[in-house]
Each structure stands twice: as structure tokens, then as C-alpha cells.
Amino acid sequence: MRGHHCITQQNHSSNDTVLHSSEQPHAILIVLYIVNLAGGTLGVIMMSQQLFRRRSQSVMTIMIISLLVLHSFMLLSIPFRLSYYLLGEWRFGRFACRLASAIIYLHMYATFAVYAAIIMARLLRLELRKCYTAAWVAAAWLLGALVVTPVLLSYYGTSTTHRPRECFQFHRELREAHMVITNYCLAGVLVAVCAVLTAIQLTVIYRVAVKYWPDVNSHVEFRAQAKSFFFILVTLVCFMPHHVFRVYYIQNYDLDKDHKLLLYNEVFLALTTMCCLDMLCFIAGIAH
User: Fold this and answer.
1) CATH numbers and ranges of domains, the chain
2) How many CA atoms within 13 Å lie on the side-chain side of 226?
3) Transmembrane stretches, by residue range (predicted)?
């Protein structure tokens, strides 16, 4: 009995230590999601009003509308995440958990794809007609809605069992070899594409700055390339940390006995949602 009592006390002490160590990451998660929900919603509303007033029909407008739709879907999932971190339990069912978790990844990679498309369009000075751009964007949305999303939901979060009241605990799936390979591939592609675009964009900005110096700010070409670099900065700040840490987390997953790395991974994942604040930055750029 004494031995059992000592083991029980040790378990309680261990649980208390884990709970105490997780208080700060949980607080960071809550703050990040509240800020992103408020700022992202405000940015979507303000940018929508700007587009409605201007009634522009440019290629950039179509891209921005795609970003607004992506951000809107992601913002709708944030209240569910906040409720989980505030209440400490999931109350919306297993499918809703998988959907809310999948949305944040779909949003991240789809947003990065739109950013890359904007940057490439400006680098290559593509002057596509609106109908062609709309057709390509519509095809991408159909592919995502009818193929990518259903396939993801069919496999994501289904390979292991989970407790009824827990959510966002899909780290156990890293025991599967195909999940590890998929994560490595996604991280490698994003980092490689971002590195190439950054190098090319900085080179172009340097050449344009040298060409028009010292009145660089008065030239449309320089301002356009500077706006493109803004999307690269968002990627570097919001997406890159998550993927770098993700690789580290996968390699050290077996050593994460107290789930500290899991919480840090969730913080870096929450950081990716900060990209929805890009609309506020865009509004500020338009105002100036």
C-alpha cells in the first residue's frame, strides 16, 4: 500500500510538473489565436470594403480575393481551437477536430501557393487576361475542394485512436513512415521554394534600386517588387519557423516524454495563422 501510495504521489507530482510547464505555451497559444482572430477578421473586412469600392478587375485583385477566402475559412476554425485551449477539452466531435486541424494546414500551403503565384507573376511580368487568371484560379479551387481536401480528410487523423475529449493530438501518427516522409517532403519543398524566390526577389530589387537610384520610391517597378518581397517576408516569419521546428520535432519525437515539444510545435503552428494579418499590412500600404 505504501509503495502504491508513493507511486501515486509521484504520478501526481509528474502530472503537476507537466501541467505547470505547459502553462506558458498554452497562454502563448491563446494570445496568438485571439490576436490573429481579431486582426485577421478586421483585415478581411477592411480589404473587402476596399475591393468593393475600387471594383478593380486586375489579376492582383483575383489573387487577393483568393487570399480573403482562404483567410476567412481559417478564421472560422480559430474559435474552436480557442475553446479547446480555454476549456481543456474538445466538445465538438472527432470529425470536427480533424477538420479544424486540417484547415490550418490547408490554409498554410494554399496561402503559400498564392503568395508564390503573386511573386512569380510580378517577377516574370505576366500580363494575363482576367478571364485566363480567373479560369486558373477557379481550377485550383476546384482541385483543392474536390480532390485535395477530401483525400486529406480521408486519411488525416485516422491511423491512430484518440481520446474522446482530446484534440490536435495527431503526433502519434508520426510513428507511420509515410507520415514522416510526407512531412519531410512538405518542409523541404516549402523551404526550397522560399529560398529560391527570396534569392531571385532580392536580386531583382537590387538591380531595380541601382537602376533608379536615388529616386527609387517614385518608380512603379520598384514599389511593385517591394510589395512582392512583403509576401516573402510573411513566409519567412510565419511559415518557415514551423517547418524548421517540424523537422527537429520529427527527429526527437521519441524523446518527447512530457509532450513539451508537442506544445512548442503547436505554438509554431499557431504562428502560421499570423499570415492572415497580411490584409491589415496591405491596407496600410494602400493608405500610404
Assistant:
1) 24-280 (1.20.1070.10)
2) 12
3) 27-47, 59-82, 102-124, 136-156, 181-208, 229-248, 268-287
- Sequential pLDDT tens for the chain (288 residues): 444 444 333 343 333 333 344 567 788 999 999 999 999 999 999 999 888 887 766 778 888 899 999 999 999 999 999 999 998 888 888 888 889 988 999 999 999 999 998 888 877 765 555 666 677 778 888 888 888 888 887 777 666 666 777 888 777 777 778 888 888 999 999 999 999 999 998 988 888 888 778 777 777 777 778 888 889 999 999 999 999 999 998 888 777 677 788 888 899 999 999 999 999 887 776 544
In this structure, the chain runs to a length of 288
Tell me whether residue 108 is exposed, middle or buried, using C-beta atoms within 10 angstroms of its C-beta: 0 to 12, 13 to 18, 19 or more: buried
Angle at 181 between CA 81 and CA 199, to 5 degrees: 85
Q: How far apart are CA 130 and CA 287, in angstroms?
A: 25
Question: Which residues are CB-contacts of 207 (< 8 A; sequence separation ≥ 6)?
Answer: none
Nearest to 64 by CA among 202, 231, 190: 231
Torsion over CA: 21, 24, 28, 29 (sign): positive
